[in-house]
């Protein structure tokens, strides 16, 4: 991908910081709404999508809560709360609609370059977990967004759905699984490239790779963005009327440098991750699903174990994990000083409170870091009983930074999710947090537009409805609209087998 250098005296309507799925999504959305906007994207690496958006740096699950058990907690009375699952699925449907619009408009030629149909499954063992999964299925099966889900405890059916998981499994333990054929595998790296190609193919867009944004300062009604060339070390300033900081884990330090009050008191807790990747084509060919289990006691939600079919550059692969770890880096290609440099007087109290109140998480991370390869293989064999070490290799995933916020009662809380931070005057926004982030990039960026471009929404409303037909409505409230939308996106995104 060719980087277009920016003149030192450039002024832009929009500056995007970071070369991942979030910046690319916002850029394309804004260009579709107002083609005359001038936009520049600055990425510190030599290509886009090399951090968390990269295909091998995440599991590629199109997070729609079809299989993720942590989105459906069970209460003390045995009732399953599906509200978060509904919201996550609803958000993913917005992303699907946006991608469908791009495909239908001819802006994306082949959706299969980044999106492939892969069944989503939940798999549990033990009587208590089987009871939970039955309750979860009963709570979801009649909801319009989850129509088509199946449940079974029959070993023959389970063997048909996931032969690799059932092969060689000892009897005597209750087993259950749910299966949804409408799940997807998403290569967010390939999607990011397609989106940046859309931007690069039109006027008014400058792509600046190998350029690190080192500072943000308010200047009149906009911002002065300080940029340093990663290869030649030269520095320059550009002006922006609006800045979006979508730099993954690198977003927090930049928001802190911006000086906006909304970023005060926020801290970050970095969590690294690893996967086991299968190297044996025969084993890869025997599994065609994303199979999610239940998280261990004390494990963070992002560490739910899962066995995933991946489709990267047209080739199927197989991942298991994640195995959590700890690093003080905020980016995979970041600095070991990222965490200590982020500690400020306004957030140290919240960070210390989180450290105090999350000892089970700390213990879990220590155990994960200390794992041997045999420990990791033991966890894999819960899903693949006959797994051999020689067929799997360890890879490092992208770095995640969870949000720490002040809390009046506890002093500080650790949040697992994504959060948009916007300045009071709407001229700057940034995204913090992790999963289900990439899957919900379109609705998250839509919220940025609603917050920061509120004065233009009336004139953009017709285009927004064209981009996202359900705009202003909820599919979960209208079964007929939900069915029509699902059929349209399935056909447009070439997901019919």
Structure report:
With 497 residues, the chain is of the alpha+beta class. The protein has one domain (11-477): FAD/NAD(P)-binding domain, CATH 3.50.50. Helix content is 32%, strand content 26%. It has 15 helices and 20 strands. Helix 2 packs across helix 15 (479-492). The longest helix has 22 residues, at 83-104. The radius of gyration is 22 Å and the shape is globular. It starts with 10 loop residues before the first strand and ends in a 5-residue tail after the last helix.
List keywords for this structure.
497 residues, alpha+beta, globular, FAD/NAD(P)-binding domain, ten-stranded mixed beta sheet, eight-stranded mixed beta sheet
What characteristic shape results from the CA principal axes? globular
Q: Cα-atom Rg, whole angstroms?
A: 22 Å
Strand content: 25-35%
- As for the CATH topology, it is FAD/NAD(P)-binding domain
Low-confidence stretches: none
Q: Strand tally, please?
A: 20
Mean pLDDT: 91
The DSSP helix count reads 15
**What's the CATH superfamily, by name?**
FAD/NAD(P)-binding domain
User: How much helicity do the residues have?
Assistant: 25-40%
The first-level CATH class name: Alpha Beta
Major sheet size, sense and barrel closure? 10 strands, mixed
CATH architectural name:
3-Layer(bba) Sandwich
